[in-house]
Amino acid sequence: MQNAKAISTPDLDQPPQKKGERRQVHEHVLSRMRRGLMVGAFLPGQVLSLRKLAAGLGTSPMPVREVLSRLIAAGALEETANGSVAPPRLGPDKLEDLFSVREVLEGMAAEMAARKATPALIEELTAINTKLLVAIEKRDISGCLSFNQEFHFTLYRGCGSDVILPLIEALWLQFGPTMYMSLLVPSMPWNAADHGAILDALKKGEHAAVKRGIVHDIRTTKRALLTVLGENGMADLPFAARSDLFGDF
Amino acid sequence: MQNAKAISTPDLDQPPQKKGERRQVHEHVLSRMRRGLMVGAFLPGQVLSLRKLAAGLGTSPMPVREVLSRLIAAGALEETANGSVAPPRLGPDKLEDLFSVREVLEGMAAEMAARKATPALIEELTAINTKLLVAIEKRDISGCLSFNQEFHFTLYRGCGSDVILPLIEALWLQFGPTMYMSLLVPSMPWNAADHGAILDALKKGEHAAVKRGIVHDIRTTKRALLTVLGENGMADLPFAARSDLFGDF
DNA sequence: TGCGCCGATTTGTGATCTCAGTATGTGATC
DNA sequence: GATCACATACTGAGATCACAAATCGGCGCA
Protein backbone atom coordinates (compact mmCIF):
# COMPACT_ATOMS: atom_id res chain seq x y z
CA MET A 1 0.00 0.00 0.00
CA GLN A 2 2.90 2.22 -0.54
CA ASN A 3 1.31 4.61 -2.94
CA ALA A 4 -0.67 7.03 -0.86
CA LYS A 5 -3.24 7.28 -3.61
CA ALA A 6 -3.97 3.58 -3.41
CA ILE A 7 -6.75 3.90 -0.89
CA SER A 8 -6.22 7.20 0.76
CA THR A 9 -6.70 10.28 -1.29
CA PRO A 10 -5.73 13.67 0.08
CA ASP A 11 -9.41 14.45 0.19
CA LEU A 12 -9.62 16.82 -2.70
CA ASP A 13 -13.21 17.19 -3.66
CA GLN A 14 -13.23 20.21 -5.87
CA PRO A 15 -11.37 19.56 -9.11
CA PRO A 16 -8.03 21.15 -8.26
CA GLN A 17 -6.58 20.13 -11.57
CA LYS A 18 -3.23 21.68 -10.84
CA LYS A 19 -0.14 20.81 -12.80
CA GLY A 20 -0.37 18.35 -15.61
CA GLU A 21 -2.17 15.90 -13.39
CA ARG A 22 -5.51 15.01 -14.88
CA ARG A 23 -8.26 14.78 -12.34
CA GLN A 24 -9.57 11.27 -12.63
CA VAL A 25 -13.17 10.53 -11.89
CA HIS A 26 -12.42 7.47 -9.82
CA GLU A 27 -10.26 9.51 -7.46
CA HIS A 28 -13.16 11.77 -6.77
CA VAL A 29 -15.44 8.78 -6.25
CA LEU A 30 -12.90 7.16 -3.96
CA SER A 31 -12.60 10.15 -1.66
CA ARG A 32 -16.38 10.52 -1.52
CA MET A 33 -16.86 6.88 -0.65
CA ARG A 34 -14.11 6.88 1.93
CA ARG A 35 -15.57 9.86 3.69
CA GLY A 36 -19.02 8.35 3.38
CA LEU A 37 -17.88 5.22 5.16
CA MET A 38 -16.42 7.24 8.00
CA VAL A 39 -19.38 9.58 8.58
CA GLY A 40 -22.32 7.24 8.37
CA ALA A 41 -23.46 7.31 4.78
CA PHE A 42 -23.57 3.52 4.81
CA LEU A 43 -24.68 1.19 7.56
CA PRO A 44 -22.97 -2.11 8.33
CA GLY A 45 -24.51 -4.79 6.18
CA GLN A 46 -26.30 -2.32 3.94
CA VAL A 47 -26.07 -3.60 0.38
CA LEU A 48 -24.76 -1.06 -2.09
CA SER A 49 -25.93 -1.15 -5.67
CA LEU A 50 -23.38 -0.37 -8.31
CA ARG A 51 -25.74 1.42 -10.62
CA LYS A 52 -27.52 3.41 -7.94
CA LEU A 53 -24.22 4.47 -6.48
CA ALA A 54 -23.05 5.57 -9.91
CA ALA A 55 -26.27 7.46 -10.47
CA GLY A 56 -25.92 9.17 -7.10
CA LEU A 57 -22.42 10.22 -8.02
CA GLY A 58 -23.34 11.26 -11.53
CA THR A 59 -21.02 8.92 -13.35
CA SER A 60 -21.12 5.67 -15.21
CA PRO A 61 -20.71 2.48 -13.23
CA MET A 62 -17.13 2.11 -14.38
CA PRO A 63 -15.29 4.38 -11.94
CA VAL A 64 -17.49 3.08 -9.14
CA ARG A 65 -16.50 -0.47 -9.95
CA GLU A 66 -12.87 0.43 -9.70
CA VAL A 67 -13.40 2.08 -6.33
CA LEU A 68 -15.47 -0.76 -4.95
CA SER A 69 -12.70 -3.16 -5.92
CA ARG A 70 -10.21 -1.15 -3.96
CA LEU A 71 -12.45 -0.87 -0.94
CA ILE A 72 -13.05 -4.61 -1.01
CA ALA A 73 -9.31 -5.17 -1.08
CA ALA A 74 -8.97 -2.90 1.94
CA GLY A 75 -11.68 -4.79 3.81
CA ALA A 76 -13.84 -1.69 3.94
CA LEU A 77 -16.50 -3.54 2.00
CA GLU A 78 -17.38 -7.19 1.78
CA GLU A 79 -18.76 -9.16 -1.13
CA THR A 80 -22.11 -10.74 -0.50
CA ALA A 81 -23.00 -14.10 -2.01
CA ASN A 82 -24.31 -12.64 -5.25
CA GLY A 83 -21.41 -10.27 -5.77
CA SER A 84 -22.96 -7.21 -4.25
CA VAL A 85 -21.01 -5.32 -1.64
CA ALA A 86 -21.76 -4.04 1.84
CA PRO A 87 -19.84 -2.60 4.79
CA PRO A 88 -18.89 -5.41 7.15
CA ARG A 89 -20.97 -6.28 10.18
CA LEU A 90 -18.52 -6.56 13.04
CA GLY A 91 -19.29 -9.13 15.70
CA PRO A 92 -17.70 -8.93 19.15
CA ASP A 93 -14.80 -11.25 18.37
CA LYS A 94 -13.98 -9.63 15.06
CA LEU A 95 -14.15 -6.26 16.72
CA GLU A 96 -11.78 -7.56 19.35
CA ASP A 97 -9.37 -8.76 16.66
CA LEU A 98 -9.58 -5.51 14.78
CA PHE A 99 -8.84 -3.37 17.77
CA SER A 100 -5.97 -5.60 18.86
CA VAL A 101 -4.32 -4.96 15.54
CA ARG A 102 -5.10 -1.26 15.89
CA GLU A 103 -3.28 -1.18 19.21
CA VAL A 104 -0.17 -2.74 17.75
CA LEU A 105 -0.09 -0.78 14.51
CA GLU A 106 -1.18 2.61 15.77
CA GLY A 107 0.92 2.26 18.88
CA MET A 108 3.92 1.70 16.66
CA ALA A 109 3.08 4.60 14.38
CA ALA A 110 2.48 6.90 17.33
CA GLU A 111 5.79 6.08 18.93
CA MET A 112 7.65 6.60 15.67
CA ALA A 113 5.85 9.88 15.13
CA ALA A 114 6.66 10.99 18.66
CA ARG A 115 10.36 10.57 17.95
CA LYS A 116 10.14 12.88 14.99
CA ALA A 117 7.51 15.29 16.31
CA THR A 118 8.11 18.96 15.59
CA PRO A 119 6.59 21.84 17.55
CA ALA A 120 4.57 22.67 14.46
CA LEU A 121 3.02 19.22 14.46
CA ILE A 122 2.17 19.43 18.15
CA GLU A 123 0.56 22.80 17.61
CA GLU A 124 -1.45 21.43 14.71
CA LEU A 125 -2.60 18.51 16.82
CA THR A 126 -3.59 20.83 19.65
CA ALA A 127 -5.70 22.90 17.28
CA ILE A 128 -7.44 19.81 15.93
CA ASN A 129 -8.12 18.58 19.44
CA THR A 130 -9.69 21.90 20.35
CA LYS A 131 -12.07 21.59 17.44
CA LEU A 132 -12.82 18.04 18.53
CA LEU A 133 -13.70 19.21 22.04
CA VAL A 134 -16.08 21.77 20.60
CA ALA A 135 -17.73 19.11 18.47
CA ILE A 136 -18.17 16.90 21.52
CA GLU A 137 -19.69 19.79 23.42
CA LYS A 138 -22.15 20.39 20.61
CA ARG A 139 -23.02 16.70 20.30
CA ASP A 140 -21.94 16.94 16.67
CA ILE A 141 -21.45 13.31 15.72
CA SER A 142 -19.96 13.95 12.30
CA GLY A 143 -17.63 16.55 13.75
CA CYS A 144 -16.49 14.16 16.45
CA LEU A 145 -15.72 11.47 13.93
CA SER A 146 -13.96 13.78 11.52
CA PHE A 147 -11.81 15.63 14.02
CA ASN A 148 -10.94 12.49 15.93
CA GLN A 149 -9.84 10.86 12.71
CA GLU A 150 -7.89 13.95 11.76
CA PHE A 151 -6.17 13.98 15.13
CA HIS A 152 -5.04 10.39 14.88
CA PHE A 153 -3.93 10.49 11.27
CA THR A 154 -2.13 13.80 11.60
CA LEU A 155 -0.12 12.18 14.36
CA TYR A 156 0.46 8.96 12.44
CA ARG A 157 1.50 10.78 9.30
CA GLY A 158 4.36 12.11 11.34
CA CYS A 159 5.88 8.64 11.60
CA GLY A 160 7.38 9.05 8.15
CA SER A 161 6.49 5.58 6.96
CA ASP A 162 4.17 5.21 4.02
CA VAL A 163 3.94 1.49 4.59
CA ILE A 164 2.11 1.46 7.89
CA LEU A 165 -0.27 4.33 7.18
CA PRO A 166 -2.42 2.63 4.52
CA LEU A 167 -2.76 -0.39 6.77
CA ILE A 168 -4.11 1.76 9.58
CA GLU A 169 -6.41 3.48 7.16
CA ALA A 170 -7.78 0.14 6.00
CA LEU A 171 -8.59 -0.75 9.60
CA TRP A 172 -10.41 2.54 10.16
CA LEU A 173 -12.48 2.04 7.04
CA GLN A 174 -13.47 -1.37 8.35
CA PHE A 175 -14.91 -0.18 11.63
CA GLY A 176 -16.08 3.24 10.41
CA PRO A 177 -19.69 2.27 9.69
CA THR A 178 -20.00 0.31 12.94
CA MET A 179 -18.48 3.20 14.84
CA TYR A 180 -20.99 5.65 13.42
CA MET A 181 -23.91 3.41 14.17
CA SER A 182 -22.82 3.02 17.76
CA LEU A 183 -22.66 6.76 18.19
CA LEU A 184 -26.34 7.04 17.38
CA VAL A 185 -27.04 5.37 20.71
CA PRO A 186 -27.37 8.18 23.24
CA SER A 187 -25.62 6.20 25.94
CA MET A 188 -22.49 5.87 23.83
CA PRO A 189 -19.83 7.91 25.56
CA TRP A 190 -17.25 9.80 23.58
CA ASN A 191 -13.96 9.98 25.29
CA ALA A 192 -11.23 12.29 24.11
CA ALA A 193 -9.61 12.38 27.52
CA ASP A 194 -6.53 10.52 26.32
CA HIS A 195 -5.79 13.13 23.70
CA GLY A 196 -4.73 15.61 26.35
CA ALA A 197 -2.30 13.16 27.86
CA ILE A 198 -0.96 12.34 24.40
CA LEU A 199 -0.32 16.01 23.68
CA ASP A 200 1.42 16.42 27.03
CA ALA A 201 3.66 13.43 26.42
CA LEU A 202 4.39 14.73 22.94
CA LYS A 203 5.54 18.07 24.33
CA LYS A 204 7.74 16.37 26.90
CA GLY A 205 9.22 14.05 24.33
CA GLU A 206 8.11 10.97 26.21
CA HIS A 207 7.73 8.58 23.29
CA ALA A 208 6.60 5.60 25.32
CA ALA A 209 3.91 7.69 27.01
CA VAL A 210 2.58 8.77 23.63
CA LYS A 211 2.28 5.16 22.62
CA ARG A 212 0.60 4.28 25.90
CA GLY A 213 -1.85 7.13 25.39
CA ILE A 214 -2.83 5.92 21.94
CA VAL A 215 -3.21 2.34 23.11
CA HIS A 216 -5.33 3.47 26.02
CA ASP A 217 -7.47 5.56 23.71
CA ILE A 218 -8.02 2.57 21.45
CA ARG A 219 -8.86 0.30 24.38
CA THR A 220 -11.39 2.81 25.68
CA THR A 221 -13.05 3.03 22.31
CA LYS A 222 -13.13 -0.73 22.00
CA ARG A 223 -14.76 -1.14 25.40
CA ALA A 224 -17.39 1.49 24.64
CA LEU A 225 -18.13 -0.10 21.29
CA LEU A 226 -18.45 -3.58 22.73
CA THR A 227 -20.70 -2.34 25.51
CA VAL A 228 -23.08 -0.43 23.29
CA LEU A 229 -23.30 -3.14 20.67
CA GLY A 230 -23.66 -5.75 23.38
CA GLU A 231 -26.53 -3.92 25.05
CA ASN A 232 -28.40 -3.94 21.80
CA GLY A 233 -27.92 -7.66 21.51
CA MET A 234 -25.60 -7.26 18.54
CA ALA A 235 -28.74 -6.86 16.51
CA ASP A 236 -28.79 -4.01 14.12
CA LEU A 237 -29.66 -0.76 15.69
CA PRO A 238 -32.87 0.63 14.20
CA PHE A 239 -31.20 3.65 12.71
CA ALA A 240 -30.98 4.82 9.16
CA ALA A 241 -27.96 5.85 7.21
CA ARG A 242 -27.39 9.47 6.38
CA SER A 243 -29.07 10.08 3.06
CA ASP A 244 -27.73 13.59 2.66
CA LEU A 245 -24.46 12.36 1.23
CA PHE A 246 -25.27 9.83 -1.44
CA GLY A 247 -29.03 9.69 -1.55
CA ASP A 248 -30.98 6.63 -0.58
CA PHE A 249 -30.36 3.12 -1.72
CA MET B 1 -9.81 -6.90 4.54
CA GLN B 2 -11.99 -9.22 6.40
CA ASN B 3 -13.28 -11.19 3.49
CA ALA B 4 -10.60 -13.69 2.68
CA LYS B 5 -11.44 -13.39 -0.98
CA ALA B 6 -10.62 -9.69 -0.98
CA ILE B 7 -7.01 -10.12 -1.92
CA SER B 8 -6.15 -13.64 -1.03
CA THR B 9 -7.77 -16.40 -2.94
CA PRO B 10 -7.37 -19.99 -1.80
CA ASP B 11 -5.29 -20.51 -4.90
CA LEU B 12 -7.72 -22.45 -6.94
CA ASP B 13 -6.54 -22.46 -10.46
CA GLN B 14 -8.49 -25.22 -12.04
CA PRO B 15 -12.16 -24.29 -12.18
CA PRO B 16 -13.38 -26.18 -9.12
CA GLN B 17 -16.86 -24.90 -9.63
CA LYS B 18 -18.23 -26.85 -6.73
CA LYS B 19 -21.51 -25.95 -5.15
CA GLY B 20 -23.55 -23.16 -6.60
CA GLU B 21 -20.55 -20.83 -6.56
CA ARG B 22 -19.89 -19.49 -10.02
CA ARG B 23 -16.25 -19.34 -10.90
CA GLN B 24 -15.59 -15.73 -11.72
CA VAL B 25 -12.93 -14.80 -14.19
CA HIS B 26 -11.44 -12.09 -12.03
CA GLU B 27 -10.86 -14.56 -9.21
CA HIS B 28 -8.81 -16.68 -11.50
CA VAL B 29 -6.89 -13.64 -12.71
CA LEU B 30 -6.31 -12.52 -9.15
CA SER B 31 -4.80 -15.79 -8.01
CA ARG B 32 -2.60 -15.93 -11.09
CA MET B 33 -1.34 -12.40 -10.55
CA ARG B 34 -0.75 -12.94 -6.86
CA ARG B 35 1.31 -16.02 -7.46
CA GLY B 36 3.07 -14.26 -10.29
CA LEU B 37 4.12 -11.46 -7.98
CA MET B 38 5.52 -13.93 -5.47
CA VAL B 39 7.49 -16.11 -7.87
CA GLY B 40 9.11 -13.58 -10.11
CA ALA B 41 6.79 -13.10 -13.05
CA PHE B 42 7.15 -9.35 -12.65
CA LEU B 43 10.19 -7.32 -11.73
CA PRO B 44 10.11 -4.26 -9.50
CA GLY B 45 9.37 -1.23 -11.62
CA GLN B 46 8.35 -3.27 -14.63
CA VAL B 47 5.38 -1.55 -16.23
CA LEU B 48 2.43 -3.83 -16.84
CA SER B 49 0.13 -3.19 -19.77
CA LEU B 50 -3.52 -3.80 -19.20
CA ARG B 51 -4.22 -5.12 -22.65
CA LYS B 52 -1.14 -7.31 -22.90
CA LEU B 53 -1.88 -8.76 -19.51
CA ALA B 54 -5.42 -9.47 -20.57
CA ALA B 55 -4.23 -11.06 -23.79
CA GLY B 56 -1.76 -13.20 -21.87
CA LEU B 57 -4.54 -14.36 -19.62
CA GLY B 58 -7.00 -14.87 -22.43
CA THR B 59 -9.63 -12.46 -21.21
CA SER B 60 -10.90 -8.99 -21.91
CA PRO B 61 -9.25 -6.10 -20.07
CA MET B 62 -12.18 -5.82 -17.67
CA PRO B 63 -11.36 -8.55 -15.15
CA VAL B 64 -7.73 -7.49 -15.24
CA ARG B 65 -8.67 -3.93 -14.40
CA GLU B 66 -10.59 -5.11 -11.39
CA VAL B 67 -7.65 -7.16 -10.19
CA LEU B 68 -5.14 -4.39 -10.76
CA SER B 69 -7.33 -2.08 -8.69
CA ARG B 70 -7.24 -4.49 -5.81
CA LEU B 71 -3.52 -5.01 -6.05
CA ILE B 72 -2.98 -1.27 -6.11
CA ALA B 73 -5.10 -0.95 -2.98
CA ALA B 74 -2.94 -3.61 -1.34
CA GLY B 75 0.23 -1.78 -2.31
CA ALA B 76 1.34 -4.74 -4.42
CA LEU B 77 1.35 -2.47 -7.44
CA GLU B 78 1.91 1.23 -7.85
CA GLU B 79 0.43 3.63 -10.32
CA THR B 80 2.90 5.34 -12.59
CA ALA B 81 2.39 8.91 -13.73
CA ASN B 82 0.34 7.97 -16.76
CA GLY B 83 -1.89 5.51 -14.95
CA SER B 84 0.03 2.38 -15.77
CA VAL B 85 0.99 0.05 -12.96
CA ALA B 86 4.20 -1.60 -11.81
CA PRO B 87 5.46 -3.54 -8.79
CA PRO B 88 7.09 -1.11 -6.36
CA ARG B 89 10.79 -0.51 -6.29
CA LEU B 90 11.80 -0.77 -2.67
CA GLY B 91 14.59 1.48 -1.51
CA PRO B 92 16.54 0.72 1.68
CA ASP B 93 14.43 2.94 3.93
CA LYS B 94 11.15 1.71 2.59
CA LEU B 95 12.37 -1.83 2.94
CA GLU B 96 13.30 -1.06 6.51
CA ASP B 97 9.83 0.31 7.16
CA LEU B 98 8.16 -2.65 5.55
CA PHE B 99 10.08 -5.21 7.54
CA SER B 100 9.52 -3.32 10.79
CA VAL B 101 5.80 -3.65 10.23
CA ARG B 102 6.29 -7.30 9.33
CA GLU B 103 8.00 -7.93 12.64
CA VAL B 104 5.16 -6.41 14.61
CA LEU B 105 2.31 -7.93 12.64
CA GLU B 106 3.73 -11.37 12.00
CA GLY B 107 5.13 -11.57 15.50
CA MET B 108 1.66 -10.93 16.82
CA ALA B 109 0.05 -13.46 14.50
CA ALA B 110 2.68 -16.06 15.34
CA GLU B 111 2.20 -15.69 19.06
CA MET B 112 -1.57 -15.92 18.75
CA ALA B 113 -1.22 -18.97 16.54
CA ALA B 114 1.16 -20.57 19.03
CA ARG B 115 -1.47 -20.32 21.74
CA LYS B 116 -3.96 -22.21 19.62
CA ALA B 117 -1.57 -24.57 17.88
CA THR B 118 -2.74 -28.15 17.53
CA PRO B 119 -0.47 -31.16 16.98
CA ALA B 120 -1.94 -31.44 13.51
CA LEU B 121 -0.84 -27.91 12.67
CA ILE B 122 2.66 -28.54 13.97
CA GLU B 123 2.89 -31.71 11.92
CA GLU B 124 1.72 -29.84 8.83
CA LEU B 125 4.30 -27.14 9.40
CA THR B 126 7.02 -29.74 9.84
CA ALA B 127 6.11 -31.34 6.54
CA ILE B 128 6.19 -28.00 4.76
CA ASN B 129 9.55 -27.18 6.27
CA THR B 130 10.95 -30.48 5.07
CA LYS B 131 9.91 -29.63 1.54
CA LEU B 132 11.47 -26.21 1.96
CA LEU B 133 14.79 -27.75 3.01
CA VAL B 134 14.76 -29.95 -0.07
CA ALA B 135 14.11 -26.93 -2.26
CA ILE B 136 17.01 -25.09 -0.67
CA GLU B 137 19.24 -28.11 -1.23
CA LYS B 138 18.26 -28.16 -4.90
CA ARG B 139 18.72 -24.41 -5.31
CA ASP B 140 15.12 -24.27 -6.45
CA ILE B 141 14.29 -20.59 -6.11
CA SER B 142 10.59 -20.88 -6.84
CA GLY B 143 10.31 -23.79 -4.45
CA CYS B 144 12.07 -21.86 -1.71
CA LEU B 145 9.74 -18.91 -2.13
CA SER B 146 6.60 -21.01 -2.31
CA PHE B 147 7.34 -23.30 0.62
CA ASN B 148 8.66 -20.51 2.79
CA GLN B 149 5.48 -18.56 2.13
CA GLU B 150 3.39 -21.62 2.82
CA PHE B 151 5.21 -22.19 6.10
CA HIS B 152 4.63 -18.68 7.34
CA PHE B 153 1.02 -18.41 6.26
CA THR B 154 0.05 -21.83 7.51
CA LEU B 155 1.31 -20.72 10.89
CA TYR B 156 -0.38 -17.34 10.73
CA ARG B 157 -3.67 -18.82 9.63
CA GLY B 158 -3.69 -20.59 12.95
CA CYS B 159 -4.07 -17.30 14.79
CA GLY B 160 -7.78 -17.35 14.10
CA SER B 161 -8.05 -13.69 13.14
CA ASP B 162 -9.16 -12.81 9.65
CA VAL B 163 -8.29 -9.19 10.24
CA ILE B 164 -4.54 -9.46 10.54
CA LEU B 165 -3.99 -12.05 7.81
CA PRO B 166 -4.87 -9.88 4.80
CA LEU B 167 -2.61 -7.15 6.13
CA ILE B 168 0.31 -9.54 6.29
CA GLU B 169 -0.52 -10.78 2.83
CA ALA B 170 -0.47 -7.24 1.50
CA LEU B 171 3.01 -6.76 2.90
CA TRP B 172 4.27 -9.97 1.29
CA LEU B 173 2.88 -8.93 -2.07
CA GLN B 174 4.75 -5.66 -1.74
CA PHE B 175 8.19 -7.16 -1.26
CA GLY B 176 7.60 -10.29 -3.35
CA PRO B 177 9.10 -9.01 -6.59
CA THR B 178 12.08 -7.46 -4.82
CA MET B 179 12.62 -10.66 -2.89
CA TYR B 180 12.65 -12.74 -6.05
CA MET B 181 15.07 -10.42 -7.77
CA SER B 182 17.46 -10.58 -4.84
CA LEU B 183 17.47 -14.36 -4.96
CA LEU B 184 18.82 -14.26 -8.48
CA VAL B 185 22.07 -13.00 -7.01
CA PRO B 186 24.14 -16.09 -6.25
CA SER B 187 25.53 -14.59 -3.06
CA MET B 188 22.07 -14.20 -1.59
CA PRO B 189 21.86 -16.62 1.29
CA TRP B 190 18.67 -18.39 2.12
CA ASN B 191 18.26 -19.05 5.75
CA ALA B 192 15.58 -21.34 7.07
CA ALA B 193 17.47 -21.99 10.28
CA ASP B 194 14.89 -20.19 12.39
CA HIS B 195 12.15 -22.48 11.23
CA GLY B 196 13.55 -25.35 13.25
CA ALA B 197 13.60 -23.26 16.40
CA ILE B 198 10.07 -22.11 15.70
CA LEU B 199 8.87 -25.69 15.37
CA ASP B 200 10.62 -26.63 18.60
CA ALA B 201 9.07 -23.75 20.48
CA LEU B 202 5.71 -24.65 19.02
CA LYS B 203 5.99 -28.21 20.31
CA LYS B 204 6.98 -27.02 23.77
CA GLY B 205 4.18 -24.48 23.85
CA GLU B 206 6.59 -21.60 24.37
CA HIS B 207 4.56 -18.84 22.76
CA ALA B 208 7.07 -16.08 23.30
CA ALA B 209 9.81 -18.17 21.74
CA VAL B 210 7.71 -18.73 18.65
CA LYS B 211 7.27 -15.00 18.31
CA ARG B 212 10.99 -14.45 18.84
CA GLY B 213 11.74 -17.03 16.17
CA ILE B 214 9.54 -15.32 13.62
CA VAL B 215 10.95 -11.91 14.42
CA HIS B 216 14.47 -13.26 14.10
CA ASP B 217 13.61 -14.89 10.80
CA ILE B 218 12.26 -11.61 9.48
CA ARG B 219 15.29 -9.69 10.68
CA THR B 220 17.61 -12.15 8.98
CA THR B 221 15.75 -11.83 5.73
CA LYS B 222 15.79 -8.07 5.97
CA ARG B 223 19.53 -7.99 6.55
CA ALA B 224 20.20 -10.31 3.63
CA LEU B 225 17.96 -8.27 1.38
CA LEU B 226 19.56 -4.98 2.33
CA THR B 227 23.03 -6.41 1.85
CA VAL B 228 22.39 -7.87 -1.59
CA LEU B 229 20.54 -4.83 -2.85
CA GLY B 230 23.16 -2.55 -1.34
CA GLU B 231 26.01 -4.39 -3.04
CA ASN B 232 24.37 -3.81 -6.35
CA GLY B 233 24.11 -0.14 -5.62
CA MET B 234 20.34 -0.29 -5.44
CA ALA B 235 20.41 -0.26 -9.18
CA ASP B 236 18.25 -2.75 -10.89
CA LEU B 237 19.81 -6.12 -11.16
CA PRO B 238 20.27 -7.09 -14.78
CA PHE B 239 17.92 -10.01 -14.60
CA ALA B 240 14.79 -10.73 -16.53
CA ALA B 241 11.41 -11.69 -15.22
CA ARG B 242 10.15 -15.20 -15.67
CA SER B 243 8.31 -15.25 -18.96
CA ASP B 244 7.00 -18.77 -18.53
CA LEU B 245 4.07 -17.59 -16.47
CA PHE B 246 2.53 -14.69 -18.30
CA GLY B 247 4.56 -14.32 -21.43
CA ASP B 248 6.64 -11.27 -22.14
CA PHE B 249 5.62 -7.69 -21.85
C1' DT C 1 -55.61 -15.78 5.06
C1' DG C 2 -51.44 -18.06 3.96
C1' DC C 3 -48.36 -20.30 0.57
C1' DG C 4 -46.29 -20.95 -3.82
C1' DC C 5 -45.38 -19.94 -8.50
C1' DC C 6 -44.23 -16.97 -12.33
C1' DG C 7 -42.87 -12.72 -14.68
C1' DA C 8 -40.76 -8.19 -14.68
C1' DT C 9 -36.99 -5.81 -12.90
C1' DT C 10 -32.57 -5.17 -11.07
C1' DT C 11 -28.32 -7.10 -10.12
C1' DG C 12 -23.14 -7.84 -11.18
C1' DT C 13 -19.96 -9.41 -14.90
C1' DG C 14 -17.57 -9.30 -18.89
C1' DA C 15 -16.83 -7.44 -23.66
C1' DT C 16 -16.68 -3.75 -26.77
C1' DC C 17 -16.14 0.99 -28.25
C1' DT C 18 -14.50 5.72 -28.19
C1' DC C 19 -11.43 9.19 -26.88
C1' DA C 20 -7.59 11.73 -25.38
C1' DG C 21 -2.93 11.67 -23.93
C1' DT C 22 1.67 9.46 -24.49
C1' DA C 23 5.26 6.99 -26.23
C1' DT C 24 7.50 5.31 -30.33
C1' DG C 25 9.77 5.14 -34.38
C1' DT C 26 10.77 6.72 -38.71
C1' DG C 27 11.62 10.16 -41.76
C1' DA C 28 13.70 14.56 -43.35
C1' DT C 29 16.70 18.27 -42.51
C1' DC C 30 20.77 20.67 -40.87
C1' DG D 1 25.98 11.52 -38.34
C1' DA D 2 23.01 13.87 -35.07
C1' DT D 3 18.65 16.14 -34.16
C1' DC D 4 14.09 17.61 -34.66
C1' DA D 5 9.29 16.87 -36.38
C1' DC D 6 5.50 14.42 -37.64
C1' DA D 7 2.75 10.32 -38.11
C1' DT D 8 1.55 5.95 -36.27
C1' DA D 9 0.63 2.88 -32.62
C1' DC D 10 -0.46 2.09 -27.97
C1' DT D 11 -1.87 3.48 -23.41
C1' DG D 12 -5.62 3.77 -19.71
C1' DA D 13 -10.32 5.83 -18.64
C1' DG D 14 -14.84 6.01 -19.07
C1' DA D 15 -19.35 4.90 -21.24
C1' DT D 16 -22.24 1.64 -23.22
C1' DC D 17 -23.85 -2.86 -24.44
C1' DA D 18 -25.16 -7.74 -23.74
C1' DC D 19 -26.14 -11.49 -20.87
C1' DA D 20 -27.37 -14.42 -17.17
C1' DA D 21 -28.43 -14.94 -12.51
C1' DA D 22 -30.89 -13.44 -8.71
C1' DT D 23 -34.28 -10.68 -6.54
C1' DC D 24 -38.69 -8.83 -5.86
C1' DG D 25 -43.37 -8.17 -6.94
C1' DG D 26 -47.97 -9.65 -7.56
C1' DC D 27 -51.17 -12.98 -8.83
C1' DG D 28 -53.49 -17.35 -8.25
C1' DC D 29 -54.52 -21.31 -5.66
C1' DA D 30 -55.34 -23.98 -1.49
For the biggest sheet of chain A, the summary is:
2 strands, antiparallel
The shape of chain A, in one word, is globular
Biggest interface, CB < 8 A: A-B, 38 and 38 residues
- Relative helix content of chain A: 55-70%
Tally of individual domains of chain A: 2
Widest beta sheet: strand line-up of chain A: 1-2
Mean pLDDT of chain A: 88
Total strand count of chain A, please? Answer: 2
The CATH architecture of the largest domain in chain A can be given as Up-down Bundle
Q: Strand-and-helix sequence of chain A, N→C?
A: HHHEEHHHHHH
SS element count, helices of chain A: 9
Please, what is the CATH homologous superfamily of the largest domain in chain A? Answer: GntR ligand-binding domain-like
Question: How large, in whole angstroms, is the Cα Rg of chain A?
Answer: 18 Å
Q: Which strand-content bin applies to the residues of chain A?
A: under 5%
Query: Uncertain runs of chain A with pLDDT below 50, 5 residues or more?
Result: 1-5, 8-20
Strand-pairing-aware structural class of chain A: mainly alpha
Assembly of the depicted chains: homodimer
- CATH fold group of the largest domain in chain A: Four Helix Bundle (Hemerythrin (Met), subunit A)
